[in-house]
Please model this.
Amino acid sequence: MAKDPICGMEVDEANPAGSSSHQGKTYYFCCEGCKKTFDENPEKHAAGS
Model:
């Protein structure tokens, strides 16, 4: 399981609602809204994960 960097929800890496890569790391999301928020400013949200 992975942690959604936006909301903190546990996400099944095998079946996420979305994923994004940033600086060589893959981030998984519980919903498209969290993915969109991350994609708008990945530097801000990746730092907190």
The two ends are 14 Å apart (CA to CA). The mean pLDDT is 94.
